[in-house]
Every structure is written in structure tokens, then in C-alpha cells.
């Protein structure tokens, strides 16, 4: 069944450059749209993190990006690096 993204919430951040996660979070939903496909979302997050959307290119270069499959209309995605870890929860709904 197709899923739509309702909300993206920051759950935890550790070791990220000061202010970077807030900027990332504020623009993220606009960039990824509403349709949820975790494989495609992982690629979109990577492109977004490495884009010049913040007027400072490559803010998240060298980081790993991973979105999880949906379960009970909830999913997560993480941004990880050897010293950093950010987790977002994604609230979903069924598309009818």
C-alpha cells in the first residue's frame, strides 16, 4: 500500500555541527515531498544533505543515510558518521 508522509520529527542528534540539524530539518519535508518509499527517500536525503540548499555545500558529506521500511505507519531515517548520529521519526498515513 502506498504511504504519504505526514510529519518528520527530530528525535535525537549527537555530534553534529552546531545549527546544521535545525536547518536540515526545517527544509527537509519540502525537499522530499509527501510520498514515502524508503529506498528513494534514502537517496533523496543523501542528495539533500550534500546539496547547496544551505548556501554551504556538502554540509553532510561523508555521512551515511538510511531510511527504514514502514511499520504501523511509522518509519525512521538516520544520518550517521563515525562520531555523529541523528535520528528522525516519520509519521505516515495510507493513501486511498
Determine the number of helices (DSSP H or I, runs of at least 4 residues).
Answer: 2
Mean pLDDT: 78
- Content of β-strand: 35-45%
> Low-confidence parts, pLDDT < 50 over ≥5 residues?
none
Q: Taking Cα atoms only, what radius of gyration do you get, to the nearest Å?
A: 13 Å
Q: What percent of the residues sit in helical stretches (DSSP H or I)?
A: 25-40%
Biggest sheet, spatial arrangement of strands: 2-1-5-4-3
Number of strands: 5
Shape: globular
The secondary structure category is alpha+beta
Summed up, the domain count is 1
Order of helices and strands: EHEHEEE
Q: How does the major sheet shape up?
A: 5 strands, antiparallel
Distance between the termini: 9 Å
Description:
The protein has helices spanning 20-32, 38-49, and strands at residues 3-14, 35-36, 64-67, 74-81, 84-94. It has 96 residues and is of the alpha+beta class. It has a five-stranded antiparallel β-sheet with strand order 2-1-5-4-3. The protein has one domain (3-94). The chain starts with a strand and ends with a strand. The longest helix has 13 residues, at 20-32. The chain is 26% helix and 39% strand. It is globular, with a radius of gyration of 13 Å.
Amino acid at each position: 500500500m502506498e504511504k504519504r508522509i505526514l510529519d518528520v520529527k527530530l528525535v535525537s542528534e549527537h555530534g553534529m555541527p552546531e545549527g546544521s540539524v535545525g536547518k536540515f530539518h526545517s527544509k527537509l519535508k519540502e525537499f522530499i515531498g509527501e510520498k514515502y518509499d524508503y529506498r528513494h527517500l534514502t537517496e533523496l536525503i543523501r542528495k539533500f544533505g550534500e546539496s547547496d540548499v544551505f548556501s554551504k555545500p556538502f554540509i553532510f558529506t561523508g555521512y551515511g543515510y538510511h531510511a527504514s521500511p514502514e511499520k504501523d505507519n511509522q518509519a525512521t531515517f538516520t544520518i550517521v558518521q563515525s562520531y555523529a548520529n541523528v535520528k528522525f521519526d516519520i509519521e505516515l498515513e495510507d493513501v486511498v
